[in-house]
Amino acid sequence: MATPALEIRDLHAWYGESHVLHGMALEVAHGEVVTLLGRNGAGRTSTLRAVLGLTGRRAGSVKVNGVETTGMPPHAIARLGIGYCPEERGIFASLTCEQNLMLPPVVAEGGMAIEEIYAMFPQIAERRASPGGRLSGGEQQMLAIARILRTGAKLLLLDEITEGLAPVIVQRLGQVVTALRERGFTIVLVEQNFRFAAPLADRHYVVERGQVVKVVRKDELAANTEVLNEYLGV
């Protein structure tokens, strides 16, 4: 069997004394899109942060392309080819759109050329000289995704990319995720917007109290709608 892009086994993580992950386990093959679904505070964002070694203490196993990372510092984990788009976006307000785009370091070979990125995000191309602080919420979100594509990362961790955005922008982001998948990227989506996530993902991991409580494949969605509504409170 091919080595998974991401393999998590019995992952525990802490913020100080607070135990936030309680045996997380999931697997993502190369080229797959999976979602982490759940209510706020369930442990979805903490899972992404723990993959990158950003939670402080962690125990268990996190393998990226077969490489065990639990003893590695965050900068070394990122250089295994991971791109992280945090919920807060982290756009530098005083830098131009293009300066923000060029800021992250290259972590692996094969990153997208800036012309390719502008073709995928024409709104960003139009605003390339604008300060980051003057971009709309949707433009900032597109920039936050765009800048990790230049780095060569092939495993993308995207946290709540549709949060607070207009439906037309959400639709565009769905098209972007589909296009990235077609280019061979592996994507882990943390999402509250199940309508956005449902058609995009191969598998949905429902997270509750820091662990996976349900796994639903794309072809099982119809049969599990009531169960998912119960877990997600939608």
Task: Give a summary of the structure in a few sentences.
With 234 residues, this protein is α/β, with parallel strands linked by helices.
Describe the protein in words.
- This protein is of the alpha/beta class and 234 residues long.
- It has a domain at 1-81 and 186-234: 3-Layer(aba) Sandwich (Rossmann fold), CATH 3.40.50.300.
- Helix content is 31%, strand content 27%.
- It has helices at residues 44-51, 74-78, 97-102, 114-120, 122-126, 137-149, 167-182, 194-197, 225-232, and strands at 6-15, 18-28, 33-37, 58-64, 67-68, 82-85, 155-159, 186-191, 203-208, 211-217.
- The strands form two sheets. It has a six-stranded mixed beta sheet with strand order 6-7-8-3-9-10, with helices on both faces. A four-stranded antiparallel beta sheet has the order 2-1-4-5, covered by helices on one side.
- Helix 7 links the parallel strand 7 and strand 8.
- The termini are far apart.
- The mean pLDDT is 94.
Can you lay out the helices and strands and say which pair or pack?
Blueprint: E1 6-15, E2 18-28, E3 33-37, H1 44-51, E4 58-64, E5 67-68, H2 74-78, E6 82-85, H3 97-102, H4 114-120, H5 122-126, H6 137-149, E7 155-159, H7 167-182, E8 186-191, H8 194-197, E9 203-208, E10 211-217, H9 225-232
Parallel strand pairs: 3-8, 3-9, 6-7, 7-8
Antiparallel strand pairs: 1-2, 1-4, 4-5, 9-10
